[in-house]
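Form 7-S
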Amino acid sequence: APQTPAPTSDPTPAPQTPAPTSAPTPAPTSAPTPAPQTTAPTSAPSSALTPSASPSPSPSFGCPDGQVGFTFTLTTDDYPEETRWILKQGDKWPTGTVIASVDYLTTYTKPQATYIENLCIEENKTFMFRIFDKVRDGICCNHGKGEYSLALNDQEIHRGGEFNRKEQTKFEAISSYSNTNAPPGIKVVTEPKGGNLDSSNEDEEEELLSKLPHN
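Output:
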């Protein structure tokens, strides 16, 4: 009888599932973003500015058309309450119109201090400025080195301080003065000791005020 040949090879091996080639995805490696933090200030807030011991320079200031800037600058002596001044428009003191004035005792109170007054005055008109000292010794130099100056549109037209009871400056309010010691159109009169610039009621008032006791 026919014989069945023996098998020529081993049985086919069972299929095998390969092992995974990589490990599972690792957990996130970065830490969570930290919460925002407010940075503290690097320096303390600036302190308030300390006022300067010296006065600031006079600022330029504008005036309307047809007017000129007039500046009066005063550095007081040791008795500031003895100083006053009057500015009039006109070419004669008794009939002039008072434009501005300050009085004794209350306006200037700090010795050796600088005060600045700015005004706008009518252009091409005549003005007269008078400064007074209650005890007739001016503001320089028996009791401190005081002085005053007048300027038109920031250009100085007169500077003084050594007078007796009063000094007067007559000027034209024009805007073209050059910055010189004696510009044209300026007339300065210092009242002589024991004399009067005029005999107006203002002189009578000054006579009474000058007899007030010296502080």
